[in-house]
Design a protein that fits this description.
Largest sheet: none
Radius of gyration: 13 Å
Distance between the termini: 12 Å
Strand content: under 5%
Number of strands: 0
Shape: globular
């Protein structure tokens, strides 16, 4: 749900077939403490972790729709 992951997914998503689309999204170590934060906090930590340039960060944050619990269909069912 992070803009970080969704922007990287978009780079490789050329069709509805998605088996190769996730290739640009790095595998994460979910034991890091910041994974317990909000989606926006996790986004910031991912941008910092991968040293994403401020210009790219601003572009992603202004062009990728923010996802949160209130705008995800069936969030509670997951």
């Amino acid at each position: 749900m992070t803009n970080f992951a969704r922007a990287l997914l978009y780079l490789n998503k050329h069709s509805q077939h998605s088996t190769t689309a996730w290739g640009a999204v790095p595998i994460q170590d979910y034991t890091e403490m910041w994974w317990k934060g909000t989606i926006s906090e996790i986004d910031e930590c991912l941008f910092e972790k991968y040293k994403v340039d401020t210009g790219i960060r601003d572009f992603v944050m202004s062009n990728v729709q923010v996802k949160n619990e209130s705008n995800i269909v069936n969030f509670q069912d997951v």
